[in-house]
Amino acid sequence: MFVVFLDAGGDAAVTAFAILGKGFITVAYSSIYVVTTDTYPTCIRAAALGLGTSVARAGSMASSFVGGILVRIVADVVRAHLH
User: Fold this and answer.
1) 40 with 48: CB under 8 angstroms?
2) Separation of alpha carbons 18 and 20, rounded Å
3) Segment 17-57, tens digit of pLDDT
4) Helices (H), the chain
5) What is the pLDDT of residues 51-67, one digit of tens each?
6) Cβ distance 17 to 3 under 8 Å?
7) Cα(75)–Cα(25) distance, integer angstroms
8) Phi-psi region of 53 (alpha: psi -120 to 50; beta: other; left: phi over 0)
9) Which of 21, 51, 61, 66 is the most buried (most CB within 10 A)?
């Protein structure tokens, strides 16, 4: 989110924000995993983890297609506004 406010030469800042964001994501996932092991029984936890993994894999497969479509849509909008 803060990357938008950086200048074009701010490669080090972009890298720092990316690493910081990845660190926060890792901490959040680890915290949620620890809380769910204490809260839910094993059969429910295993089913939810399996469902979550399946959805995550389907999302990662679909992301390349959705990204390609969005690139074409944005390019068409930019071309329409430039002419």
Assistant:
1) yes
2) 5
3) 889 999 998 898 888 878 887 888 989 988 988 898 899 89
4) 11-39, 42-82
5) 988 998 998 899 888 88
6) yes
7) 31
8) alpha
9) 21
